[in-house]
Design brief:
3 helices, single chain, 70% helix, rod-shaped, mainly alpha
C-alpha cells in the first residue's frame, strides 16, 4: 500500500504587506511629483526642479516594485 503524503504549506503574507506598503509610498511620491500642494510649490517654484523629477521617478520605481511583490505573492501562495 502506497501512502500519499499531504503537505499543508502555507504561503507567506510578507510579500502582500510589502506590496501594499510600496503601493502606498508610490501613490505618495506620485502625488508630490505630479500634483504638489501649494506649500510645496512655494518651496520649489520651478517646474523643472529636481524635486519633481525625483518624486516622479521614485513613484514609478516603487510602483513596479509593488507589482513585482504582488506577483510573487500570487505565485508563492
Amino acid at each position: 500500500m502506497v501512502r500519499r503524503r499531504k503537505y499543508d504549506i502555507s504561503g507567506t503574507r510578507q510579500y502582500l504587506w510589502l506590496a501594499i506598503i510600496l503601493l502606498g509610498l508610490s501613490l505618495w511620491f506620485a502625488w508630490d511629483g505630479w500634483f504638489p500642494r501649494a506649500s510645496v510649490r512655494q518651496r520649489h517654484p520651478d517646474a523643472s526642479d529636481h524635486y519633481y523629477t525625483f518624486n516622479r521617478s521614485v513613484a514609478v520605481l516603487l510602483l513596479s516594485a509593488a507589482a513585482a511583490c504582488g506577483y510573487i505573492h500570487m505565485v508563492v501562495r
